[in-house]
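Reopening this ticket.

The earlier resolution said the output was attached, but the attachment link was broken on my side. Pasting everything inline this time so it's all in one place.
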Amino acid sequence: MYAVPDGDEVVAVAKELGIHLSPEEAVLYRKYLMEQLSQFDAFVQARLEEPVPPMVCAVRKLGYRPRPEEDPLNAWMWKCRIEGVAEGVLAGKTVSYKDHIAVAGMPMSFGSFALEGFIPDFDATVVTRVLQAGGTIIGKNVMNGLSGGFGTGGAIGDYGRPLNPHNREHVTGGSSSGSGAAVAAGQVDISFGGDQGGSIRIPAAFCGIIGHKPTFGLVSHFGIGFGSDQSIDYTGPMARTVEDAAAALQATAGYDPYDPRQTRDVPTRMDVLGRLAEGVARLRIGVLQEGFDDAEGDVRDLVLAAVDVLGRAGADVTKISIPAHHAIRTAQAALTGEGALALFKTGFFGAFTRTYYPAALIAAINKLWASQADVLAPRTKLSLIAAELSRRNYHGRLYAKAQNVRPAYIKAYDAALADVDVLVMPTCIMTAPKNHRPESYLEAVEDNLMAMSRGGSRNTQPFNYTGHPALALPVGKSSAGLPVSMQLVGRFFDDPLLMRAAYAYQHATDWNKIIGVHA
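Inline output:
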């Protein structure tokens, strides 16, 4: 049943929309509003057919929340076992998901106590396709969520801090923090994370594993939400070996009628494994000079040494400059804030497209935002406040410009990728920072706000905006024993080529030493 508004509430609601009603007008408006609300209530309660997305392995056993002794790195939200079909490219592989990806029958919290107990009734497409490819789902991972998180340090968030298995005193990176820790520790073969500015690649870099942000639209985003602008939001695999990452991408890539973000360029499927071992002879690699700006010495040296490995394997190496590389952050910040604000006001999975809308999930998130916005992370609050102010100051022009100038930035990278096949740079210009423990709540708030400007996303964020595929690949450890990562970036839908280059590097090195966990 709906709440019946009185005349004063009608006036108040109208005023929030910039509409000013006299008391006499409010009486008339209320009369017709009551009629519409009654019709809406009858519609929402009617037993009408609502076709749902397909589900593989519909019969599932209830999972459980792991005990601390079973989860020493605090990487897991939920443990379960859902077995896929008998055969496929992921047969024998275990798979987990960041807790912003829907798995029917398994709790989904988006990293917030406020959503504790919510259980989706449908599977995200990346869940369906993993099961169709023979994978076995074993759980959901802790994440930097709507209420904050500890992947980037500090002390604001729910569900605690995932520990970096290379050094527990250092952060994992976020927001796919639990996924990074669980994969690095060998607790799961493959985990699907989410990436809005580096949230797959940064924890992959800090935890010493592979993390792939696919070409925009290549892997369906249906059933996945994070409250960010949908044009910069991605999901992709994290793994310890290129073979596993490539198999996961092959299993999940391709057109999905449930994802309205996909364009006609998205293929029905993609062969990633077929040419994986063909090597890098005559592959043209461009070392992006701007990507090394302000990089720590160990990071610079190890990434350049990795480039030398590819050079000795037959690749042609040149230096490349793209001055626009550092200028993208402001444009993406405009998208991130106003895009999140639009979702805040219209619905967590957006609007205006003919697709399936997960009603229960949308309602749960909308109720959280409508009544408990104070639980949101400080940097999320800052972004929303800035977005509201920009809407008031520029009336949508800021967001429109950020979208409209995107082709110019894409062109800058495409021009470079006309001369080379792959761009190379550090994934992060630093190794995993040491976890900082604030002494007060205000210090924790500032820590959370400062995480946006520490430089960890300097080389990752541009490719959320442009949509180019980007792959984080571990290349060694710093003098302090912390992982260092190299990022490979390619042309649109050249994801298999990035995997091939990564495979060549993996098999030309002592891979177990590179990814080994010592702490």
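Reporter confirms the inline version is readable. The two ends are 56 Å apart (CA to CA). Residues 7-43 form one domain.
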